[in-house]
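Recall the central idea of this unit: under ordinary conditions, the amino acid sequence of a chain determines the structure it adopts. In this exercise we apply that idea directly, starting from the sequence alone.
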Amino acid sequence: MKLEEFQAKELLARYHITVPPNGGTMTQVEELSNALRKCGSAPWVIKAQVQTGGRGKAGGILLVKTSAQAKEAVQSLLGKKLVTAQTGAEGILVRRVLVEKTVEIKRELYTSIAIDRKKGRPLLIAIAKGGVEVEELAQSSPESIVKIEIDPFTGLEAYEARSLLFALGLYSTDSKINQDRIQFFKNCVTAFLNLDASLLEINPLAVTTEDQLIALDAKIILDDNGLFRHPDLKIAEAGGTVLEQQAKRAGISYIALKGNIGCLVNGAGLAMATMDLIKQCGGDPANFLDVGGGANLAQVTKAFKIILSDKNVKTILVNIFGGIMKCDLVAEGIIAAVKEVNLNVPLVVRLEGNRSEEGLRLLSHSRLNITSIKDLKEAAQKAVELASGVPAPTYS
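Accordingly, the structure predicted from this sequence is:
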């Protein structure tokens, strides 16, 4: 689960990681006066709450000195499509903005904690220069990157944090400042571990004129598989489209794509293979959708509704391998779902595995407009043909 900046900062504050004072977020300009009052005296920063880097360069972060300028900034951002190097030409719609008080700073740094897949443990990364150019700096000067492997049982040790201060030029002659800075990095690691995060990034990490470390911007990604341990974190329908959020609530893994063939599959690996085969046959998948190994009727019905909400979908391909999930029960779910959603696009179904013959028999006797094909390659080819009206290329 990807968090918006304001949500990430709320979590950082829980772990005593300093963030700028703010007046909260807003989705309409009428909320601005209250936000400015909470924030305190000018100047302020108005920040678009979208999940992409490079917001500053794209005009998504605006410095304002008066309430009139703040109102103009909020009006210009809400409803705007922000185009950055990460979003591509399509951009991303700004639905929410954050109001923060400005902070006087002396320098900017970068720090993050992520999972090192090769080592199988967290890795703290820090660079003595932060801000919007950190990606370019990492490419041009990789030797400037400081890395510390984190023991998940002990977290960041004081001596490791102290060596980090030396490497970043943060070590001070004032022992109190050093202790505060050591604790800052230790708290970052504690937050990462306790939250079951897969990424915690602070960029820029700033040193204020009062020698305090402060997270000017933050990005946190939580491991979805660990969310059951954090019921209080269901604050967030953070990230993704409305359909992706609906799917998450239904226990379905769904990612919208740009094609015209809707996919309903059980199992992430099988879903990826199905999408690859559609591409090989000359088609384009409209989504990644994994209903899981034990989907029920309600989830199958919801999956159909989500797929059909995409107006680009011309055909739906259902690919189910029956293991724990019995194909005849899946077939019953498909039939019920098709009737409920009033399906108006062609449907190709491939069933294989546990009770597949019974499932195919149910589909053939349903008298619904369902094309049942046992071979996956043929099913993909048929879906491409129905979506395009052109015979799909065949492969041996």
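Residues 161 and 182 are 5 Å apart (CA to CA).
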